[in-house]
């Protein structure tokens, strides 16, 4: 017999349960326990947010700080683009991939995808989710770690001679992809291979990367546009090219995203899953991100989803200023990995300790055809977690998908893109620029590295960090930290003293 609490829970669940027939996605935000009064109070701000979203999709300068439009929704609905030219450009980019695919499949067995941030996180999620679609083996070089490159090149199907190098950088100037590309080019040269014949670039026309690819006669250059941000580029060729090379059905992926976009244009909040998510985030975090969002996909193939959501949310919402220039230091912290695994780790704190987060559990009803009843163990882990959090009064949201195939995943990613855009409107921040990101943090230290090695080589004398600081004009702490690294790499000899101040360093070898 249902108790009064059960009936109350049931009423709240039914009132806010949102299912979209077009995508099969269902959203349950009842665990947020939003009040009727809150929903009523937010009707106005939400209406304004939805109106701003209509203007954004019509091509207004929704990113005023960079004087740009925001066009990732047009990527899956080119007819929405504010000009026929833009729409035609998007379709041409699809045609360019379709033409390239058979050539690539014939010539290559592997892909080395070089990119970082939004030029890697989304593509990696797609290629991991659909790793067995029978296409090329796609490996990601998304960090400046030579060991990571060695690992990616080890046992590369077909070896370097059958490998396509796909360099993705919207701006075309991000240092790490450049450094990694030069390193990979060295590996190709050492193997006696013509790197340019194996290389393609995806970047904004006219960028340094585009010019470099043209000058060095790389195989192809695929287009990006300034009105697509890195964190919202997964439905551009940034995601479509690697996914297509991996053998995925990228048309279904775009159709799923477009279907969710249609659903999240609905002005009725309770029928708009993105609106419900944005309102839940606002309610749970007081519009200040006072609770951390923990994203937990209950599928191994979606284990990289939290990293994609993390960049999308935190790079969009984590802003010092709001749109009127007030200092707000906004944000919404995201972490997570996968269920059920995480239930046996940090869930202890989430249920029992600090009450400063909310979970968003993401499950799929189906996996691979004919999978065992273990899939029910997995899904019941999700359901059990919802109950367990409710029991402790800890907020938990749930998103369920029919499966993790292209259409469903397109819908899921589009849902989060729209929810972030609506939430940003509710808290009045520009979600589409990233003034806090410095692409060039390593460059001054690399320059100092060379100065230190040159100085030690010229002097030949054991030298302290402070003396090198004076000689190079850098703080002694910075110089000492770098010297300790160079000593550990046997690039300088370290004569230890009692502490950092009286340790001396001498050059031992030419710059490695
Ligand atoms: O694609 P790129 O221009 O190389 O940029 C790669 C990344 O650089 C920065 O970190 C931006 O904040 C990210 O949004 C972007 O995805």
From TrEMBL:
First-tier enzyme category under EC: isomerase
GO molecular function annotation: carbohydrate derivative binding; DNA binding; glucose-6-phosphate isomerase activity; monosaccharide binding
Catalysed reactions listed for this entry: alpha-D-glucose 6-phosphate = beta-D-fructose 6-phosphate
Location of the HTH iclR-type domain: 452-496
InterPro entries for the chain: G6P_Isomerase (IPR001672), SIS_dom_sf (IPR046348), SIS_PGI_1 (IPR035476), SIS_PGI_2 (IPR035482), Tscrpt_reg_IclR_N (IPR005471), WH-like_DNA-bd_sf (IPR036388), WH_DNA-bd_sf (IPR036390)
Localisation: Cytoplasm
CDD domains: SIS_PGI_1, SIS_PGI_2
A cellular component term, taken from the record's GO annotations: cytosol
Keywords: Cytoplasm, Gluconeogenesis, Glycolysis, Isomerase
Active site per the UniProt annotation: 315, 344
EC number from the UniProt entry: 5.3.1.9
Family: Belongs to the GPI family.
Stated role: Catalyzes the reversible isomerization of glucose-6-phosphate to fructose-6-phosphate.
PANTHER family for the chain: GLUCOSE-6-PHOSPHATE ISOMERASE
Protein's recorded name: Glucose-6-phosphate isomerase
Gene: pgi
């Amino acid at each position: 017999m249902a108790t009064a609490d059960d009936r109350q829970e049931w009423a709240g669940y039914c009132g806010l349960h949102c299912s979209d027939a077009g995508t099969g996605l269902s959203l349950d935000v009842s665990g947020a326990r939003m009040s009727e009064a809150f929903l009523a109070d937010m009707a106005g701000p939400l209406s304004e947010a939805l109106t701003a979203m209509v203007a954004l999709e019509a091509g207004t300068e929704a990113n005023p700080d960079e004087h740009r439009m925001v066009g990732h929704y047009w990527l899956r609905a080119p007819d929405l683009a504010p000009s026929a030219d833009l729409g035609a450009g998007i379709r041409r980019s699809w045609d360019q991939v379709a033409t390239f695919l058979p050539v690539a499949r014939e010539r290559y067995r592997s892909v080395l995808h070089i990119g970082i941030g939004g030029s890697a996180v989304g593509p990696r999620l797609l290629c991991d989710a659909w790793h067995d679609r029978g296409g090329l083996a796609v490996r990601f070089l998304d960090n400046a770690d030579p060991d990571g490159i060695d690992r990616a090149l080890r046992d590369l199907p077909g070896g370097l001679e059958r490998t396509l190098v796909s360099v993705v950088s919207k701006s075309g100037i991000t240092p790490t992809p450049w450094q990694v590309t030069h390193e990979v080019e060295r590996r190709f040269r050492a193997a006696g291979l013509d790197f340019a014949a194996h290389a393609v670039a995806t970047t904004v026309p006219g960028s340094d990367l585009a010019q470099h690819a043209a000058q060095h006669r790389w195989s192809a250059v695929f287009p990006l546009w300034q009105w697509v941000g890195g964190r919202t580029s997964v439905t551009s060729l940034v995601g479509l090219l690697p996914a297509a090379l991996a053998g995925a059905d990228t048309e279904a992926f775009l159709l799923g995203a477009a279907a969710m976009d249609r659903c999240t244009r609905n002005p009725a909040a309770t029928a708009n899953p993105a609106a419900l998510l944005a309102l839940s985030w606002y309610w749970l975090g007081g519009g200040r991100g006072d609770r951390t969002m923990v994203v937990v996909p209950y599928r191994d193939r979606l284990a990289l989803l939290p990293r994609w959501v993390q960049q999308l949310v935190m790079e969009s919402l984590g802003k010092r200023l709001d749109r009127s220039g007030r200092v707000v230091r906004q944000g919404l912290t995201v972490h997570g990995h996968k269920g059920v695994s995480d239930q046996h780790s940090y869930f202890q704190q989430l249920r029992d300790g600090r009450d400063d987060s909310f979970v968003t559990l993401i499950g799929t009803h189906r996996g691979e055809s004919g999978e065992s009843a273990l899939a029910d163990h997995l899904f019941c882990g999700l359901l059990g977690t919802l109950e367990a959090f409710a029991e402790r009064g800890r907020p938990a949201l749930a998103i369920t998908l029919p499966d993790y195939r292209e259409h469903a995943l397109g819908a899921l990613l589009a849902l989060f893109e729209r929810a972030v855009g609506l939430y940003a409107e509710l808290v009045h921040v520009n979600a589409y620029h990233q003034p806090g990101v410095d692409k060039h943090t390593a460059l001054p230290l690399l320059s100092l590295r060379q100065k230190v090695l040159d100085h030690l080589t010229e002097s030949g004398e054991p030298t302290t960090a402070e003396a090198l600081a004076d000689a190079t004009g850098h703080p002694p702490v910075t110089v000492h930290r770098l010297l300790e690294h160079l000593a550990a790499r046997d690039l300088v000899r370290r004569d230890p003293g009692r502490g950092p101040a009286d340790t001396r360093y001498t050059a031992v070898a030419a710059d490695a």
